Structure formats: structure tokens, C-alpha cells
């Protein structure tokens, strides 16, 4: 491996670590989620990706012609500059989102699906070990304290290098799911599988210590969903269709009654059935969205409108809706939300189909993991279409690689049809 290729792997690993927010403690002041150094680092990764893509002939046009669906939400976020209630905020955040998307595109174009899968696996080990080490060496930074200005009521809950227990717990749950994939696909052989065992224990232990209810739910639900889909790939198409017919109604009913089921389950374990008042916030957020529901108030700025209306109703307003779908609707409306969900659903369908057909199982399950995590996690969290976000980066990267696989499959199918067709047809085509 030459020095250029080695540097690309190093940049990719650093970029993924940065997008996971695990470097926030190093790059930002205590209690802050951003800083000039964080902004410069994110911009640097984005501009490097753009220049790298432009340096190779035909790659920019290939992005526009092939990966256009992933560009729609980003373009709409940028276009929201026309009607935003805060031009400066939308300009900065939409620009950062564009650069974050560029990094995801660069990952897809520079690394094979197996290489990307391996990068993510290495990242998992680094982040888990680094977070545990920081908590042990510097508990004042790694654990919420009673003296914290923003969240003293979380005292004792682990936050690691991410600054907040919910973000930390959610990230550990995501890494646990990635570990499951690494174990199933034997990354690193027998030695890699053996190394997964203590990492499983560390990740699970830190999830519990975070005291995050949403992390615990993700920790349970996402691996169960993955195991179910992997099991479906082992049965015949007829059995799979029968299983889908039986499961689909249950899924629909569960989705329609998700709030009630979640409240019941949390009540059983002694947690607040309202998700710490989130259900009340969701109700007033829907009221605040009435006039901006179609296109939002501008990417990164829409909550200003909703917060003012919530304040008028409740006397004060939270910093966000504690629901990724509502937060994004406030920014770019339900139309923009639909664009994001279209990318995610396309990704989900293609990765699920590939998994059932045994095509690119590693990258397909990686995509399914991130998507399941995003679909479920954004019910009580908020990390849809964020800049400097590992979730959006991996959605973009896996989407591009799945598009490549679909195009290659169509090409191979045409070649087979051509070579197997009548001699006269082949002559005509030639």
C-alpha cells in the first residue's frame, strides 16, 4: 500500500471518528457541542473531499447523474435560504451539510464496500476503548456531575467523550450493532471474533451506565431486527413471502400504536411514560408547524419559529422537539422530510433485497443497521439530516455503493441476455 492510499485510509478513519462526535471533548470547550476548531475540522474534511472528487475526471458528473436522489434533500436545504427566517444560520448549516455529504460521497468513491465495512469495524474498537479510557482517567469529563451548568440532574450518568448521556448511550448502542455485524462476518478472522467479546461487554456496560432509555431501546430493538432479517435471508422465497404476510400486519399495528406501546413498556420498567415530557412537546410542536408545514422555516432555523409559538402556549420552549422527524419538518417542512425519507426507504429496500439475494451482504447489513437505528432512534431523539453526523455520512456512502451494485447487476443481466440470445439478435446489436 503506497503512502497516498495509506493517507486516505487515515483521513477516512479520522473523519468517521469526527462525525461520530467522539472528538468533541478535544476540539470544543467543556459543555459545548461546537467550536471554531470543530467547524474548521468539518469544513476541512468537506473541502478535501470536494477537491479529491474534482481531481478525478468524470467523478463530479457521475455524482450528479448517478447519485442524484441523495443530493435532493441537501439541495432543498440549500434552497431554503430563499425563505429562511435566519439567513446566517441556514447559510452556515446548509453549507456544512453539503460538505458532510461530500465526505460521504468521497468514502463511497474511494473505498470498496468491504473496505468501508472494515473501516467502520476499526472505528468501533477505537471509539469504545477511547471512551472507556477517558471515563476512567478523567471522570469529571466523562461522567455527568452535580456541578454541571446544563444538566446537573444527570449526575452519575456516563457521557464519555460526547458531552451528553443520551448521545453517548446512543453511540454505544450503534457501535454495539456494528460489533454484531463484525462478529457475524468474521472481520479479522478468528482473532477478530475473539476481540469482539470484551468489546461487547464494554459497550453493553457503558450503555447501562449512560442511563439512557432510548439507548436501551435501540440496544434491544435494532439487533433483533437485524437478526430477523438475516434469518429471512436463509429461507426460501415462498417462506419469506409467507413470513412477510404474517409479520406485516403486526408491524403496521405496532407503528400505529407505537406511542402507547412505548409508554406501556417504559411504565413497566419504572421510566416516565411520557418520555420525560416529550409527548407533550410533540403535541405543541405540531401546533407550531401549522403555517410552515410544507417547506419549513429554513434549514437549521425553523425551530426559531416553532419555539416562539410554543413559548406563547407553554410559557417556555425546549431547544428542539426531541423528535428527529418533527425537528426536520420545522427546518425544511414535510416536503423536505419526504425527500430524506425517500432516500432512506430506497436504501432500505435495496439493501434488504441484496441481503435476501446474497449480494454485498456486509454493506447491505451496514446500511440496514444505520437505517433501522435512524428510523427508531429519531422517535425520541433528533439526528436526521444533520451536518457533521456519522448517520447521514453512512446513509450517503452506503446509498452510493448500493446504487453502484444495482447498476452493475443490470449491466451483467444485459450482458447475459445478449450472449444467450439468438445469433441474429447479437449480430444486430453489434
End-to-end distance: 40 Å
What kind of sheet is the major sheet? none
Gross morphology: globular
Taking all Cα atoms into account, the compactness measure Rg is: 22 Å
- Written as H for each helix and E for each strand, in order along the chain, the element string is HHHHHHHHHHHHHHHHHHH
Structure description:
With 430 residues, this protein is an all-alpha fold. It has helices at residues 3-19, 24-27, 36-54, 59-66, 68-79, 87-110, 113-137, 139-142, 165-184, 189-210, 213-232, 237-256, 258-268, 278-288, 302-314, 324-357, 361-377, 390-420, 423-429. It has one domain (3-429). It is built from 19 helices and no strands. Helix 17 (361-377) packs across helix 18 (390-420).
Reconstruct the topology from this structure:
Layout lengths: L2 H17 L4 H4 L8 H19 L4 H8 L1 H12 L7 H24 L2 H25 L1 H4 L22 H20 L4 H22 L2 H20 L4 H20 L1 H11 L9 H11 L13 H13 L9 H34 L3 H17 L12 H31 L2 H7 L1
Helix pairs in contact: 1-7, 3-6, 5-6, 5-16, 6-18, 7-9, 7-10, 9-10, 9-11, 9-17, 11-17, 14-15, 15-16, 16-17, 16-18, 17-18
Question: How would you concisely characterize the structure shown here?
Answer:
The chain is built from 19 helices and no strands. The protein has helices spanning 3-19, 24-27, 36-54, 59-66, 68-79, 87-110, 113-137, 139-142, 165-184, 189-210, 213-232, 237-256, 258-268, 278-288, 302-314, 324-357, 361-377, 390-420, 423-429.
Amino acid at each position: 500500500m503506497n503512502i497516498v492510499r495509506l493517507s486516505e485510509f487515515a483521513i477516512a478513519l479520522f473523519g468517521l471518528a469526527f462525525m461520530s462526535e467522539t472528538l468533541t471533548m478535544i476540539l470544543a470547550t467543556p459543555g459545548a457541542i461546537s467550536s471554531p476548531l470543530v467547524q474548521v475540522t468539518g469544513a476541512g474534511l468537506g473541502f478535501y473531499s470536494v477537491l479529491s472528487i474534482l481531481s478525478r475526471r468524470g467523478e463530479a458528473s457521475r455524482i450528479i447523474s448517478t447519485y442524484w436522489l441523495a443530493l435532493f434533500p441537501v439541495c432543498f436545504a440549500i434552497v431554503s435560504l430563499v425563505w429562511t427566517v435566519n439567513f446566517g444560520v441556514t447559510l452556515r448549516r446548509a453549507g456544512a451539510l453539503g460538505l458532510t455529504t461530500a465526505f460521504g460521497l468521497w468514502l463511497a468513491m474511494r473505498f470498496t464496500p468491504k473496505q468501508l465495512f472494515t473501516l467502520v469495524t476499526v472505528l468501533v474498537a477505537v471509539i469504545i476503548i477511547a471512551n472507556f479510557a477517558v471515563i476512567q482517567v478523567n471522570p469529571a469529563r466523562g461522567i455527568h456531575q452535580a456541578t454541571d451548568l446544563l444538566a446537573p440532574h444527570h449526575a452519575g450518568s456516563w457521557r464519555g467523550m460526547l458531552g451528553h448521556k443520551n448521545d453517548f448511550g446512543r453511540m454505544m448502542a450503534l457501535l454495539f450493532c456494528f460489533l454484531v455485524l463484525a462478529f457475524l462476518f468474521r472481520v479479522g478472522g478468528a482473532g477478530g471474533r475473539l476481540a469482539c467479546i470484551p468489546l461487547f461487554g464494554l459497550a453493553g456496560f457503558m450503555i447501562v451506565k449512560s442511563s439512557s432509555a432510548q439507548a436501551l431501546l435501540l440496544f434491544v430493538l435494532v439487533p433483533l431486527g437485524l437478526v430477523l432479517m438475516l434469518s429471512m435471508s436463509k429461507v426460501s422465497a415462498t417462506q419469506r413471502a409467507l413470513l412477510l404476510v404474517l409479520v406485516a400486519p403486526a408491524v403496521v399495528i405496532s407503528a400505529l400504536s407505537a406511542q402507547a406501546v412505548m409508554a406501556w413498556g417504559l411504565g413497566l420498567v419504572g421510566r416516565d411514560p411520557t418520555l420525560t415530557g416529550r409527548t407533550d412537546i410533540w403535541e405543541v410542536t405540531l401546533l407550531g408547524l401549522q403555517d410552515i408545514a410544507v417547506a419549513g422555516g429554513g434549514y437549521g432555523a425553523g425551530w426559531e419559529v416553532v419555539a416562539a409559538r410554543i413559548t406563547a402556549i407553554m410559557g417556555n420552549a425546549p431547544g428542539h422537539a426531541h423528535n428527529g422527524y418533527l425537528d426536520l419538518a420545522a427546518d425544511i417542512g414535510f416536503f423536505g422530510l419526504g425527500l430524506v425519507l425517500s432516500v432512506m426507504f430506497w436504501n432500505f429496500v435495496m439493501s434488504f433485497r441484496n441481503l435476501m439475494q446474497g449480494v454485498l451482504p456486509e454493506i447491505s447489513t451496514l446500511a440496514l443497521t444505520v437505517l433501522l437505528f435512524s428510523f427508531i432512534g429519531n422517535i425520541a431523539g433528533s439526528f436526521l439530516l444533520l451536518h457533521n453526523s456519522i448517520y447521514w455520512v453512512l446513509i450517503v456512502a452506503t446509498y452510493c455503493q448500493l446504487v453502484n451494485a444495482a447498476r452493475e447487476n443490470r449491466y451483467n443481466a444485459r450482458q447475459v441476455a445478449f450472449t444467450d440470445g439468438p445469433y441474429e439478435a447479437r449480430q444486430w446489436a453489434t
